[in-house]
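hi! just following up on the protien thing from before. the input was this:
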Amino acid sequence: MWGLGVTVYFVAVTYRTSLGVAGIEAADRFAVNASALSTFSLLQLLVYASLQIPVGLLVDRWGTRKVLSLGIVLFTCGQFGFALAESYPVALLCRALLGCGDAMTFISVLRLGGRWFPGRRGPLVAQLAGLIGMAGNLVTTLVLARVLAAFGWTPTFAGSAVGGVLVLVLVLLFLKDQPPGYETGPVRHTGPGYVRRQIVAAWREPGTRLGMWVHFTTQFPAMVFLLLWGLPFLVEAQGMSIAGAGGLLTVVVLSNMVIGLVYGQTIARHHGARAPLALGTVGATALLWGTVLAWPGQAPLALLVALCVVLGACGPASMIGFDFARPANPPERQGTASGIVNMGGFTASMTTLLAIGVLLDVTGDAFRVAFSAVFVLQALGLSQILRLRRRADRRERERVVASRVEAVHVPV
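and the predicted 3d structure came back as:
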């Protein structure tokens, strides 16, 4: 069941990142500048981020199968429409539709993992989901880029939309929300107060807020690099060929997959490693990013490879945010809490994509100045992580003690 869910996520990530290898072609096809080009990804992420809490509520209320099915229909229509779009406004609408469907996938997959696996495997299962999603990014960088070069815009994007049709059939025929006999606590899914109760209860937990800021601070550097600006930066600012730049984007994806396994296993065995891993990833990303931008002239290849390896840790580090929110919320509120957490990184990515596009236009394509926007958001997120960390740890210890006391008093 979980495998079906992550297959949907794999296809969604492939569609989400498809523009990352087609940015130059998109600029030519729709005759737009850097700011307008960034609007594609900006709008897609804006829709994605704004829907995270509503989708979390829908998952808690409707279940995984219905939400995933709706998401597949939306992102497949968006990808197919993008293949046929010839004007900038129509293309924007299609990317927004794609973002809407994409927003419904990952939270659904997290809920499937929580239903079909024991709680102690939660960190590893979440990292594996992220790993399989990055495999979709790998397909984008290795396959879609070559297909685009060989066959052109419309055949590439229209052909990729077939994957959405296939996974829709699989979900409708085989997916089940949870194993037989699975029980959750009582929760009212009706009435005008349901939405407010779910959101307020999840937000009051310091672990939910800490998870959101961890996701906010760790995810966006790699997301911005892979989703849109990495290829133009490597080609135009670092003088690489498109093939060479695509190879470095592949390094980010492969690094993500390897580090995801390491982080998942480490956190599953050592719960206290969550914050050190997240903070260490933020520090390493800032160090490598700053070194590349400060390097006089074009940075050496070894340094660019090191940057891409470190950027590969951003995705696994962002998954740690869910590991803070998961123990802070009961099963019937996991979708809502996951939506709040997932909103963090995509809000940061959206903000940075826009900032880089605007700064590139203002400064005449000065990538060093534009990419410095990353440090501003890192500083904001880091301050919030440090502010909430102790409070979340204290609250989590209280919940553990309370659960043990309750277990002792349960009559045999």
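The mean pLDDT is 87.
The domain at 2-175+195-401 is CATH 1.20.1250.20 (Growth Hormone; Chain: A;).
cheers
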